[in-house]
Amino acid sequence: LKVIRTRAAMREYARQNAGRIGFVPTMGYLHEGHLSLIRRAKAENPLTVVSIFVNPAQFNDPADLEKYPVDFARDTAMLEGEAVDAVFAPTREEVYPNGVPELRMRYDALMDKLCGAHRPGHFEGVLLVVHKLFMWIMPRRAYFGLKDYQQYLLIRKMVYDLEIPVEVIGCPLVREADGLAMSSRNVRLSAFGRKQALLISRALFAAAKVWRSGASVAETQAALHSALGELEVEYALLCNAETLVTLTGSEPRPEKVLIAVAVYVEGVRLIDNVLLP
Ligand code: AMP
Fold first, then answer.
1. Cα–Cα distance measured from residue 152 to residue 115, given in angstroms and rounded to the nearest whole number
2. In Å, how far are 145, 173, 204, 212, 242 from 275, measured between CA atoms?
3. What is the chain's alpha carbon radius of gyration, rounded to the nearest angstrom?
4. pLDDT in tens, 167-193
5. Does 128 contact ligand 1 (Cβ within 6 A)?
6. Which residue from 67, 84, 147 has its CB within 8 A of the most atoms of ligand 1, so it is best to mutate?
7. Residues 126, 5: contact at Cβ < 8 Å?
8. pTM of the model
């Protein structure tokens, strides 16, 4: 595992390995969700580069940034275990030498939905850092988890509109054996919170079953909300998976529906979704 710390060194590695790199961007504190992306990248590319960078530009809540788990030794051991070729782990100064620039890339319609509606500036920060990473690493393919479905849509769109020569690949959401969506933030939950968090995937699966049985938007919404019980819900809804427009029931049944949830458990923000059919 080659550890790369500067963008100059990253650019040099990219120049030497042009056209051969599969790239997996992460914020570290790796888990099986990340590893599934890494394994896919390994299978499809001669070289795999993973980035670890907790991007301050995408944290709208400073306390959330402060509490984001970090363990570089643990992460590199996991990357060694997967025989990853290189890890790019720059400092904040390296990524933002003049501070976070004012540049804002926005998709008004897509960013006004779901997480974008509740985390001002979040996706602008994501697009900024992913664009920078793409320019340094020049990957042939880049792998993103569908756990962050809205993020995946936005990155795909940015790459298309800016004609960045990267193939963006969406990878299935990975869950714990009991159904909880894997997340670096899960370690912040107590045993009790961990149990409460199980309601999220259970509610999603219950709602998906109701929807698949041919029930209406209202019936599916009701099933979703009742299964979430007492959880502190930020949003829990059905939307058109292409546009992220919330379903009201008056539209024709879309081809692809996303049921998406964001909740707070013990102050930790957790998201999850199912994509139907
Ligand atoms: P993060 O480190 O949380 O920014 O995630 C880095 C990448 O891993 C993103 O593309 C995420 O969508 C993906 N990812 C995180 N958790 C999961 C999961 N449970 N299943 C699949 N992909 C995931």
1. 12
2. 13, 10, 10, 11, 11
3. 19
4. 999 999 999 999 999 999 999 999 999
5. no
6. 147
7. no
8. 0.98
